[in-house]
TrEMBL record:
SUPFAM superfamilies: N5-CAIR mutase (phosphoribosylaminoimidazole carboxylase, PurE)
One Pfam family linked to the record: AIRC
The protein's name: N5-carboxyaminoimidazole ribonucleotide mutase
Keyword Lyase appears in the UniProt entry: yes
Domain of life from the UniProt record: Bacteria
General function of this protein: Catalyzes the conversion of N5-carboxyaminoimidazole ribonucleotide (N5-CAIR) to 4-carboxy-5-aminoimidazole ribonucleotide (CAIR).
Catalytic function, reaction form: 5-carboxyamino-1-(5-phospho-D-ribosyl)imidazole + H(+) = 5-amino-1-(5-phospho-D-ribosyl)imidazole-4-carboxylate
Length: 159
């Protein structure tokens, strides 16, 4: 149900957090490497046809110039969540953040924090949960778990 793509296999350690969180919610994923600059034909095919394969949201991670999320969003009717990745050719990650964040009107890309693939996975699950009660219940339980964790930490520091 969620497509997770990245521009290079060097992005996988970051994107693994999206994979892991979605798997913990029992959401089906499809993972691939789709480079905006090195495999543009594959990018076009992926973006134009993901919805026909049953994908409900796309998480696209990219570093450097980070064109992948925006290009996918320009061609796909699906919600796209961009994950800016701090790569070795990055300018402290700011180039990636701004490339994904500063999209023109009409081509939105939801953008998470630098290397924030876990939040991208949670956001994708929330998008799916808006129309799937089973997923929504898992999100509710996950958020309740976060609350309990904070409350336990609060009790520990009060002692």
């Amino acid at each position: 149900m969620v497509g997770i793509i990245m521009g290079s296999d060097s992005d996988l350690p970051i994107m693994q957090e999206a994979i892991d969180i979605l798997e913990s919610f029992d959401i089906q994923i499809e993972v691939d490497i789709v480079s905006a600059h090195r495999t543009p034909e594959k990018l076009f095919d992926y973006a134009k046809n993901a919805h026909a394969r049953g994908i409900k949201a796309i998480i696209a991670g990219a570093g450097g110039a980070a064109h992948l999320p925006g290009m996918v969003a320009s061609m796909s009717p699906l919600p796209v969540i961009g994950v800016p990745v701090k790569s070795r050719n990055s300018i402290d990650g700011w180039d990636s953040v701004l490339s994904i964040l500063q999209m023109p009107g009409g081509v939105p890309v939801a953008t998470v924090a630098l290397d924030g693939a876990k939040n991208a996975g949670i956001l994708a699950a929330q998008i799916i949960g808006a129309s799937d009660k089973c997923v929504l219940d898992k999100i509710v339980a996950y958020k309740e778990g976060l609350k309990l964790k904070v409350n336990k930490a609060s009790e520990r520091v009060k002692k």
